Amino acid sequence: MRYISxxxxxxxxTFEEAxxxxxxxxxxxxxxxxxPHMSAAHIRALHGLSYEDxxxxxxxPFVGDGFTDEVFADLIAKAYAGFGHNARAPLVQLAPGxxxxxxxxxxxxAFKDFAMQLIGQLFQEALERRGExxxxxxxxxxxxxxxxxxxxxxxxxxxxxxxxxxxRVSEVQRRQMTTPTEANVHALxxxxxxxxxxxxxxxxxxxxxxRDGVRxxxxxxINWARVLAQVVYYFSSAVSLGAPxxxxxxxxxxxxxGDIFAGYIAKRMGLPIDRLVVxxxxxxxxxxxxxxxxxRTSQVHPSISxxxxxxxxxxxxxxxxxxxxxxxxxxxxLMGELKAGGFSVSQGAMQALREHFDxxxxxxxxxxxxxxxxxxxxGELLCPHSAVGVRVAEKQRKADTPMIxxxxxxxxxxxxxxxxxxxLRPPLPKRMADLYERPERVTRVANDLxxxxxxxxxxxxx
Length: 462
Ligand SMILES: *Cc1c(COP(=O)(O)O)cnc(C)c1O
Prior knowledge:
Layout: E1 3-5, H1 15-21, E2 30-32, H2 40-44, H3 51-63, H4 69-80, E3 91-95, E4 98-102, H5 112-130, E5 134-139, H6 143-152, E6 158-165, H7 171-178, E7 185-190, H8 194-206, H9 208-213, E8 216-217, H10 224-240, E9 248-253, H11 258-269, E10 273-280, H12 285-292, E11 294-296, H13 316-323, H14 328-339, E12 342-344, H15 347-354, E13 357-361, H16 364-377, H17 384-396, E14 403-407, H18 415-422, E15 443-445, H19 449-459
The structure holds pyridoxal-5'-phosphate.
């Protein structure tokens, strides 16, 4: 399997190379050259398998020869062993025809653990075999950073630096990033918002002298291996509701478009999915784009679902690449226009997007209402992100197709919002109950590329 850039100008890479490099050198994102197909018989054969066995069968065709079957299966087993639920991604019923996919049983209580725990294992194996060392720099709206630190802390061949927007993450998120004691972990609080963090990260990748000097690697959702790991739970949940002999739809609380793009890949692989519904909070660039065809950035308005406070949805570029019939030059042109504020999606491309995607936007008040409603009528205490999803799903689902809404974080990760909505303060699971007592370690940094690059260089082991 070979990987190509969405902007058409970067070298073609293997899975392992694409995973280790993150962003393509032409500024684009890596995607597989072709999407492997899973037949109905193949999908039917997933019935009753463990999450790990499903993961192996779904991901194997994308991975190529870099990892043997045995090694790959072993890394999958290690990745999910630390989850607090044997099903890994259990499906619970909210209402007739509406199901919730609980993706928050990993070590940092958000769905990002599904990808990050696996990526940690894959990186370690690949780097050890190559005798190489990399510097991982990640930008986070809160959950990616904690998941990355949890996955990479203490590994021999990796230093991990996480940029998060100062004062704009929840206390649990911050503590998950600032309390690990391993020397290879560096939490950096940047004076700016998430888009600033993401922009500085992209600048570092485009500064080739720095990028090559520190052997920069990225684990943001632009990393193809992360998208791939997330494809698995679309299969496991759809199969448990009867796929391939029953079609389902998904609603996904969305920020960077990584999670829902994984659903699109599952559909392209042959999983019978009717609609993929994007659910956004008040930062609604995706909803506006899918409604009007106009992708235009505006200011980020901090919300009670902070992991979706994003105005530039990086992975949307991958969807555009397909919608523009894989024309890298056309995508490069759009991304150039984005630097000046935005672009209009062509009619043909909009039609292609609408074949798969719907969207909805949820206000702060509706989010709080939904947390209360779900707690009193569905028996489920939702985190604010998951509530955004449930709200949109309840509005858009059709009677004849089961809807699966992705619950992207545990309510205890956002206790203030949940308490405000429901009067209940969700406790942390026992395995992390002492989080509030551990000492914190964090460096405050300016929103300045040169300063960041020199700080990172100084911190690396000599
Ligand atoms: C990251 C995150 C999202 C958004 O996921 P994307 O892949 O960026 O669309 C939603 N909810 C939670 C809790 C998250 O951590």
